[in-house]
Amino acid sequence: MRVPLRWLREYVDLPVGETGRDVAARLVRAGLEVETVDEVDVPGPLVVGRVLDTADEPQSNGKTIRWCQVDVGEHNAEGGARGIVCGAHNFATGDLVVVALPGAVLPGGFAISARKTYGHVSDGMICSLKELDLGEDHSGIYVLPADLAAGAEPGADAKPLLGLPESVLDIAVTPDRGYALSVRGIAREAATAYDVPLRDPANFPLPTDDSLPGHPVSIGDPTGADRIVLRRVTGFDPAASSPLWLSSRLHLAGMRPISLAVDITNYVMLELGQPLHAFDESRLSGPVVVRRALAGERLLTLDGADRVLDPEDLLIADSSGPIALAGTMGGASTEISAASTDLVIEAAHFDAVTVARQSRRHKLSSEASRRFERGVDSSLQPVASARACALLVELGGATYVGASEVDERPARSSLTIPVDHPGCVAGVDYSPDVVVRRLRDVGCEVAGPDVEGRIVVTPPSWRPDLTDPNDLAEEVVRLEGYDGVPSVLRPTPAGRGFGTTKRHGLLISRALAAAGLTEVRCYPFVGVAALDALGLPADDARRDMVRLANPISDEEPFLRTTLLPGLLATAKRNVGRGFTDLALFEHGRVFHPKPGHPLPVPRPGVDRRPTDEELKALDDALPDQPFHVAVVMTGKLESDGWWGPGREATWADVIQVCREAAAAIDAPLIVAQAQRAPWHPGRCAQLLVDTGAEPLHVGYAGELHPRVVSELGLPARTVAAQIDLMTLAGFAEDLDVGPTISGFPMAKEDVALVVDEDVTASAVEDALRDGAGELLESLRLFDVYRDERLGAGRKSLAYALRFRAPNRTLTVEEASAARDAAVAEAARRVGAVQRT
């Protein structure tokens, strides 16, 4: 919102000498965001000149210039009037014009000097409004109208006549402060900031001579509009032009002057914050109605677009069909033209959400829609339309006829709050008088406080954002000054260190980083398309997701149930940028909705402590949020070099990484064959934790399915894993106790066992571990051998067994006995035969 300072001073008695930057500082302290203060001026001499003589001189380039003699009073040359070359022809001898003399600098850095052009020395410049940055008209010279020319003498300073110099405050208005999209709203804030009275421009007298009714109007959809006023004027002069004060204010406020009727509606909108629209009454067909669009309806809007309307669109229509998108843009069929003499001025109060959705649906943002979607004062419609009609009568020679109105507004609601609530919120002791005074400064009606220290507050009609006790508290704190709220650090209890879950996560992250992986952080949002790309079945539990009430992107409206979509998207992004050799991991939460607790739950108020039942309902509805760890590896795990070719990452590598992660917290991880999307059916491992009884599932690892890799655009043989950290950590060793390190030597034993092809290595490993007993320190598969001499459907698995006792050196007999017991248990369980 751009606000010229002179316009602001019409409603607020700012101190004499107060600059635009001084006012900006006060407004910033009051909570408004003033982005810039633009100084509009013309340095150097800018004077009134009278045209004494003109001579049109055709040029060889086809252009005709005008050689003028201009009287600039005391600034005349020694020989009399100044000679000035001008390219415009819309002025005549005797006219008063604005002359920039040598030494002046026009907006844009254009310096004026005496220079030779078209065979003459042009000793100055006769200016248009655009050249002075006071308007858009560059078609001709600005000739002073009669009201400005009266009493003006050649040579007089022209700046006061033009309203120069001027300061323009450019204010960034947040979505909750729609009232600030008007000079009236900014004036109210300035009056409060300076503690001076406000001359409210909305205190405009309504017409008392409604001798005839206005154009017939009705509201067909009260959910979209609850008030509309139509006022009629006749005998308007369409040739009347906007005076300088009107067009320059529009220009300085960032709007383009168009015609007097349109300029007046825009001016009143900027002044009061109420958008208006002018219809040519001769082009209206029957009564006007506010309704929703019908199937198949179309509207040609003023921007020339033929729009297909949606049933949710709110329209202004007559018997011929739609004539305007309500609160957004008018239609071409009833547009004001150069022949329009009878006008209907429409002022309405439309639903903010309806206009906002409509504006986004049609990708059509206008000055009107910006105000309606932020909330417009529901009491302004009669005043704003009357103000516009008065200007049409004054400036356009119109005759006011009458008005028609439909008012279906609901009653205003009130809030009851403790008078000390703002102080409790801010941590500042505000007296009851301060609280009541500040709320009244905002425009609230305040009753109380009563004997219990409570006040009843009715927000003003121009503040639809004040719906909560904390909204009122914010207004008190804002007007008293945020700089008055002390910065006090809350007392912090002595640290108790990381919790168990945090320590487990840090240890696993360090282990994965030590293994050469890079940690990344991904957004926890996901869409159905990402799960489709993973090939998850329709009944997969990972498709049961929590939907966000206000998602950042409509394409990702859910909270993730698996870390893989974000991690794989990160891998895809890096591969697309040329980084094909990747080893990434993420440690974060996933979200699973609790069955039987639909979201969202009712939100408790902030004026009291939630009840135990409300807190329990909120807690019960919160989704489960376990920590998971996921890994993705693509390309080469070992790089090419002088030592030879590199090595691609395989399913075995990602499983080994999971083993190292589990070993970091001393969790007993078991690996078994499995099938699970999105992994390759034959290269997928289930990760389990040894509970001492039945193993418990904690995750999966392996090579991704070729279809998934192709769908995501990742390199072939990409591998991935995901582990439920909280389940895994539940069976980890106590991290507060350090590991026991034996100083006695290790006994090494290697065995090679021949088993059937369908026997898994993990089954053999489990049997060896159980048979070896407590002396076994480590067990590792180091070779797999197949040969026809072993027999059809047979394979050899070679294991390295390491034995150690904590309190003595093992004898050869003890180590051999432990090895033999392990082999015997493997023979009993899986039919293993030791190779010799």
Give a short summary of the structure.
The chain has 836 residues and is α+β, with helices and mostly antiparallel strands. It contains 22 helices and 41 strands. The mean pLDDT is 91.
Uncertain residue segments: none
Distance between the termini: 90 Å
Average pLDDT confidence is 91
Helical residue percent band: 25-40%
User: What does the largest sheet look like?
Assistant: 7 strands, mixed
Give the spatial strand order of the biggest sheet: 27-30-31-37-36-35-34
**SS elements, strand count:** 41
Structural class: alpha+beta
Q: Strand percentage, roughly?
A: 25-35%
Radius of gyration: 40 Å
The shape, in one word, is elongated
Work out the helix count.
22
Structure description:
The structure is a single chain. It is elongated and about 125 Å long. A seven-stranded mixed sheet has the order 27-30-31-37-36-35-34, sandwiched between helices. Strands 5-4-3-6-11 form a five-stranded antiparallel sheet, with no helix packed on it. Strands 13-16-19-20-21 form a five-stranded mixed sheet. The longest helix is centred in the C-terminal third of the chain and has 19 residues, at 812-830. The model has no long low-confidence stretch (mean pLDDT 91). A hairpin with a 5-residue loop joins strand 3 and strand 4. Helix 2 packs across helix 5 (183-194), helix 6 crosses helix 7 (260-272) and helix 7 runs antiparallel to helix 10 (381-396). It is of the alpha+beta class. The protein starts with a strand and ends with a strand. The chain has 22 helices and 41 strands.
